[in-house]
Amino acid sequence: MRFPESDTLTAAFAMRAGLPRRLFGVAELERIQAVADLDEKLTISDFRQADPRVLAAIDVLITGWDCPWIGAAELAAMPRLRAVVHAAGTVRDHLGPDVWARGITVTTAADANAVPVAEYTLAAILLAGKGVPELARGYAADPGCAAADRPDIGNYRRTVGILGASRVGRRVIDLLGPFDFTVLLHDPYVAGDDPVRARATTVSLDELLRRSSVVSVHAPLLAETTGLLGDRQFDLMSPGSVLINTARGAIVDQDALVRAVRAKGVRAVLDVTVPEPLPAGHPLRGLPGVILTPHVAGSLGNELHRLGESAVSELELLAAGRPPRSPVRWESRATMA
Ligand SMILES: NC(=O)c1ccc[n+]([C@@H]2O[C@H](COP(=O)([O-])OP(=O)(O)OC[C@H]3O[C@@H](n4cnc5c(N)ncnc54)[C@H](O)[C@@H]3O)[C@@H](O)[C@H]2O)c1
Q: What percent of the chain has pLDDT over 90?
């Protein structure tokens, strides 16, 4: 949906309290106010508590993490709403089908959020390939130990398997370009003429698991990807190979992973788990060969400004009557994060 040039837009933030000032600096707020009326002190964190007159005037919602659910009742309170500009990745947690049914334009900052996830993944691939986690642990336990001459260590001619040609997956494939890696890709939705095929060899999931010494998960969590990596799949991975998961914890059968780590020395770098955080005493905690991080691969700290910048750019495009760069279409939701 486009905005006629004569319109004065009214925009409002809907997200976790305090988040707008971490997403938008002075310059971004000025850019928003150049194209829309915005009360920058107002953040809607509960539509039921919001002033009905304020809701009735909103043309554009700028949403972020913890935005409350927007379904039929909320839409009825916002009859002018024509666009939801999301300053984060997935919109699954706050937008219901009624939003698309009403023809409201939805945009996402998922491309901006993919940047730090891909950076984290590249770092994990390189450090795991070099054996850094194990060498650091050994050095801490025995300061006199030298790095043993282990032929299994190093990043020369390693095969890296990417599961999912998602925004993050594609960016990881690009980042791997300058290194001495063979890159494999598994994704049932990659078209025959997709340019990603020039940068990674597409294979079946089984072949990817058999051939890769690093497997990095970048698929969305869908019914078909829930528990995708279980005992049978870990059996295909070679001893000492590394599983990196920055996607969603439920894609991996964690009990099967624990068995694979114990039985054949599969290693893992997990930014996501089920549940989050993992309770104290969970078998994955403290398991040698497993590194856990608390869901930090996505935007954090100063990276939030990249999300804010992305959302402001989308708002400017919409206000100028131009199509957004990253629309979220209802029909693509079946395969998207
Ligand atoms: N750890 C974090 O902080 C963090 C941050 C951002 C995203 N994520 C996660 O990273 C993953 C990728 O996010 P995104 O925004 O790049 O996703 P995306 O929406 O761009 O991914 C969609 C693509 O995934 C691929 N896909 C769909 N089903 C697949 C399947 N069965 N097997 C393989 N590939 C399949 C298809 O190519 C589809 O086009 C998601 O799981 C997301 O939740 C995590």
A: 91
Residue 254 lies in a domain: yes
Inside any domain, residue 2: no
Q: How remote is the CA of residue 247 from the centroid of ligand 1, in Å?
A: 7
**305 in the same domain as 270:** no
Query: Are 225 and 123 in a shared domain?
Result: yes
Count: domains in the chain: 2
Regarding the beta carbon of 205 and ligand 1, being less than 6 Å apart is answered no
Which among 163, 307, 267, 275 has a CA at the least distance from the CA of 222?
163
- Residue span of the structural domain in which 16 resides: 10-107+301-333
28: pLDDT strictly greater than 70: yes
Give the per-residue pLDDT at 142.
87
Give, in order, the Cα–Cα distances in Å from 55 to each of 15, 100, 230, 337: 14, 19, 47, 28
Q: For residue 228, give the ligand 1 atom closest to its CA.
A: 31
- Apex 65 CA angle, 22 and 165, nearest 5: 105
pLDDT digits (tens, 9 = 90+) for 125-179: 999 999 999 989 888 898 887 766 788 899 999 999 999 999 999 999 999 999 9
For residues 97 and 51, what is the distance between their CA atoms, to the nearest angstrom?
A: 24
State whether the beta carbon of 336 lies less than 6 angstroms from ligand 1: yes
Q: Token pair for residue 230?
A: 């279980």
Tell me which amino acid residue 192 is: G
* pLDDT at residue number 259: 98
- Inform me whether the pLDDT recorded for 261 exceeds 70: yes
- Tell me the percentage of the chain whose pLDDT exceeds 70: 97
Evaluate whether residue 4 is within a structural domain: no
Domain co-membership, 85 together with 207: no
Tell me the Ramachandran region of residue 78: left when phi exceeds 0, alpha when psi lies from -120 to 50, beta otherwise. Answer: beta
Shared domain check, 75 and 222:
no
Atom of ligand 1 nearest to the CA of 271: 1
pLDDT value for 151: 83
In a domain, 79, yes or no: yes
Query: For residue range 265-284, what is the model confidence (pLDDT) as tens digits?
Result: 999 999 999 999 999 999 99
Does residue 26 sit in the same domain as residue 137?
Answer: no
Domain co-membership, 89 together with 74: yes
